Description:
Layout: E1 3-9, H1 15-28, E2 35-42, E3 47-53, H2 57-67, E4 74-78, H3 80-87, E5 113-120, H4 123-130, H5 132-152, E6 156-160, E7 165-169, H6 172-192, E8 200-207, H7 218-227, E9 236-238, H8 240-245, H9 250-255, E10 259-261, H10 264-280, H11 288-295, H12 299-310, H13 314-331, H14 337-343, H15 349-360, H16 364-372
Parallel strand pairs: 8-9, 9-10
Antiparallel strand pairs: 1-3, 1-4, 2-3, 5-7, 5-8, 6-7
Helix pairs in contact: 1-2, 4-5, 5-6
Amino acid sequence: MPIYMDRHDLPGITAKDVAEAHQEDLKIQAIYGCRALTYWFDEERQTAFCLIEGPHQEAVKAMHHHAHGLVPYQIIEVDGHVVEAFLGRIEDPKASDDATDADLLVFHDPAFRTIMVTELKDVALMHSILGTAVTGKLIGLQNEIIREALNQYDGREVQYSGYGFLASFASASKAILCATGIQKRVRKYNSYASAQKLHIQIGLSAGVPVTESNELFGQAVQLAKRLCHVPSDSQVIASAMVRELYQQGLSVLDKGETIRALSLPEEKFLSQLWDIMETSWEDPGFTIHDLARQIGISKSQLYRKTVSLTGYAPNDFIKEFRLNKAVKFIQNQEGNISEIAYLSGFTSPSYFSKCFHKRFHIIPSDYASLIANPILL
């Protein structure tokens, strides 16, 4: 049976009110074929998130309406394992040893999380310059550094892609310390390494599990991934909200030596840029004129803002976006090189190969061979 998470916006509600509502759900859940597994309540933000196993969304709404009338604002289907990875549990916390059956279990456990995404920079370039064996060793080193830091700062590993991590933190401060700790270890390694440098990009955002996205923590994860592509010199890129949440070590943030925190206008522009590219990158006729028009700014403003946030002129940013998509296609072996060229929005396979080689110093067919048949060098 599917599992759903819903969101309730509850101004003026207390933790005790939410605990009582949860008990009312438990009393009548069987009528609707549901199981009210647990909930999270954030008194500061006045939001609650319920985790419910049920036949369909309408049954979840009907159960809530019957039990206490607090109908959810939004419901999404979720994977219980993913919920546990992000939030640490999928059932109610255990009551204290001295509690009796008559005691109401009231707990304060916000579902708000700081999200960290890490990515190895230029994996295709690593393969072409260092070879598969050395690249594999660097990936292993990356895994060791990040997993040790997550363990030290109470981070939860949600997903591992092979080239990076998605992690969740209950504490924004610990997420910041974890990210800067990772970069310190990377800098230390690189200070002794010769040609085998390690470059890890880190994006930090924060949010709640259910928003307008149909994915769990969808908006926060999306933003953290996008922040990984903001250029930095061994920096961590943080959203405006993460900076606001961070309560310790503000001098580090202000110096900008290890962390770059975007302003809200920068964050808004970055989101606009990526939203448009995500819907247009496959169109070979899409140009900077279209990009400027859709954002609603002049070409000169587009140039200035795009260079500031991405390090690329708009034309180069579009090309880089498409090349990164092509790298993912090749890694996932989604077609031959000609098919991938067109899938990635390039006008011809020959032009695609030329751009790919200029960017990564390897032709796409050779990179595809490395991925499909790795040779230990």
